[in-house]
Amino acid sequence: METLELDPGPGPGAEARLDALLAGRPETVCVALRVAEASRPGPGDLRRVGELALLVRRAGHRVVLRGAGERWRVLLELTGLAGALPVE
């Protein structure tokens, strides 16, 4: 399975970048959301990543978090999203 990377960074445009990345892909791909730059993730980061992950899944593709540090992992566990947002 092909893996595509996307920086879910702050600011507008992540959804448009995701749409462009997935446009015309007939086969299932894995989208790796690069979260390493958000070393101190908060609710806004989690919301943005969750929304992008939902869009990826609705389009029929897989999603993983790439570069998630300990704070990301704890945040995912505390919110109950560890199973829904796998980390690699």
Describe the 3D structure.
The chain has 88 residues and is α/β, with parallel strands linked by helices. It has helices at residues 14-22, 43-58, 70-79, and strands spanning 3-6, 30-34, 62-66. A three-stranded parallel β-sheet has the order 1-2-3, with helices on one face. Helix 1 links the parallel strand 1 and strand 2 (30-34).
What attributes does this structure have?
three-stranded parallel β-sheet; 3 strands; 88 residues; globular; alpha/beta; 3 helices
- Poorly predicted parts: none
Distance between the termini: 15 Å
What proportion of the residues is helical, as a percent range? 25-40%
Shape: globular
- What sequence of helices (H) and strands (E) makes up the elements? EHEHEH
Helix run count: 3
Ordered list of secondary-structure elements with their pairings:
Elements: E1 3-6, H1 14-22, E2 30-34, H2 43-58, E3 62-66, H3 70-79
Parallel strand pairs: 1-2, 2-3
Summarize the structure.
The protein contains three helices and three strands, in the order βαβαβα. The protein is of the alpha/beta class and 88 residues long. It is globular and about 35 Å long.
